[in-house]
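Repro:
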Amino acid sequence: MIIFYRLPSESPNMRKISIMLAETALPHIIRILEKQTDGKYPEEFAAINPNTTFPTIVDQDNGAVIFESSAILYYLAQKSNTLLPASLKDRGETMKWLVFEAANVGPVMGELYHYLLASHEEISEAHLQRYKDKLAHYCSMLDRQLASHDYLGGAYSIADIALFPWTVILEDMADIRLANYLHLASWAQRISRRPAVSTGQRQH
């Protein structure tokens, strides 16, 4: 049994794991945590994840504790033997897009979220535009890849699950219209029509 520790908010990082659990149909329970009155999370969660970040999973079958969304996606793919290609070449293709999300798209979106919504800290419009320009560049990269591939690694995989939730908030957060990237938009529509994706995005 997988225990999925998450926040109540439906952020892209929470959505990734909800979608993955729906796709794999792995038995799981959800534990939603919020900060206590002292501003900290319960001690039992800090003991599991010293960084107290979400999402985090615990696999009761073997005691594994996994945090960081990309690591969780990879772990669940290995456990379920799905959504990860068997051949070394194809797996490498999938993993590079998974790491691309973790190293680029996620952090830049996180910075935008911090300055636009979570912080009272002032930041110049030029600084904000730099983040938006980076995301536009990433969208162009993804669009070129998807011009000749139905999915990022060829077949639907954890790389697609990692990147898809960010497309939902691109316009609101970065003033980027997905419709301007035809192949990326078509890919997002294909993924959104998957029953497990619809289920995962509603899962709380």
